């Protein structure tokens, strides 16, 4: 398999991984929302009791939160699917697969995702944003473009060297390739 074909395969699989994870998240939130609605429908106690009233208010708040998470995840999913149709890019942008070298460390491959749209995917989404996953035996790091490295990479090309201010201190990164 040529390097170009390998890169295209990894990029396609990275998109597939993200899309499957988002679709699963949407299904989970729909199930949680259904449970909340069933809880409200099944409540038979008098609403004039303060505890029952507060329980219902909390259930309604959680249902509204689920609806908002579903809307955000669906919007994010639409954007990821749109980006998956774009094949070639020569500058780092959302949807790019970027190989970088940081000093004497081995090369790293980043998959730049769309902005997180208000959802803290880094802490809620294992394996996707700012996390590592293995595709075809290659470690790929899902990268939020709002993270320090993501912000620094955006708009640059293969061959560019950039310095990134990270919580661990400055890093000088050489961009080897962008696909």
Give a structural overview.
The chain is of the alpha+beta class and 179 residues long. Helix content is 48%, strand content 20%. It contains four helices and six strands; from the N terminus they run H-H-E-E-H-E-E-H-E-E. It has helices at residues 3-42, 50-85, 121-124, 148-153; strands at 97-101, 108-112, 132-135, 138-143, 161-166, 169-178. It has a six-stranded mixed beta sheet. A hairpin with a 2-residue loop joins strand 3 (132-135) and strand 4 (138-143). Helix 1 packs antiparallel against helix 2 (50-85). The longest helix is centred in the N-terminal third of the chain and has 40 residues, at 3-42. The radius of gyration is 21 Å and the shape is elongated. The two termini are 16 Å apart. Residues 117-130 have low confidence and may be disordered.
- The order of strands across the largest sheet is 3-4-2-1-6-5
Coarse shape: elongated
The total beta strand count reads: 6
Order of helices and strands: HHEEHEEHEE
Sheet with the most strands, sense and barrel status: 6 strands, mixed
Mean pLDDT: 76
Low-pLDDT runs of 5+ residues are 117-130
Strand content: 15-25%
Q: Provide the structure class.
A: alpha+beta
The multimeric state of the shown protein is single chain
Number of DSSP helices?
Answer: 4
Terminal-residue CA separation:
16 Å
Helicity, as a percent range: 40-55%
Rg of Cα set: 21 Å
């Amino acid at each position: 398999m040529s390097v170009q074909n390998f890169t295209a395969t990894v990029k396609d699989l990275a998109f597939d991984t993200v899309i499957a994870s988002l679709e699963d998240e949407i299904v989970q939130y729909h199930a949680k929302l259904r449970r909340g609605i069933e809880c409200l429908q099944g409540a038979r106690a008098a609403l004039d009791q303060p505890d029952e009233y507060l329980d219902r208010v909390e259930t309604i708040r959680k249902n509204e939160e689920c609806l908002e998470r579903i809307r955000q995840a669906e919007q994010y999913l639409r954007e990821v699917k749109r980006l998956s149709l774009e094949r070639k890019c020569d500058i780092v942008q959302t949807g790019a697969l970027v190989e970088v070298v940081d000093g004497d460390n081995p090369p790293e491959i980043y998959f730049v995702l769309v902005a997180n749209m208000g959802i803290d995917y880094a802490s809620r989404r294992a394996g996707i944003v700012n996390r590592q996953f293995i595709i075809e035996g290659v470690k790929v790091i899902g990268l939020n473009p709002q993270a320090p490295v993501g912000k620094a990479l955006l708009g640059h090309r293969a061959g560019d060297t950039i310095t990134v201010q990270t919580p661990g201190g400055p890093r000088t990164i050489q961009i080897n390739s962008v696909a």
